[in-house]
Amino acid sequence: MTTTINEDLAAMRDHRNRIHRYRRLLEAQPTGLERQYLEQRLSEDRCAFDALMADSFPLVFRILA
Asked: What total number of domains does the chain contain?
């Protein structure tokens, strides 16, 4: 399935917004189960964001001779 750069950017914004939201919620000192849930979701969104970034904007190194 092919996505456009606009779709990728929108997905990155969604992940970024959720990451910020989970961080704010974690600052409020949630209870044990809430903290576990938020940390898990934060981790999942960070991984998804990183994967999307790597897929959308691959870093290529070239050896110059």
From this structure: 1
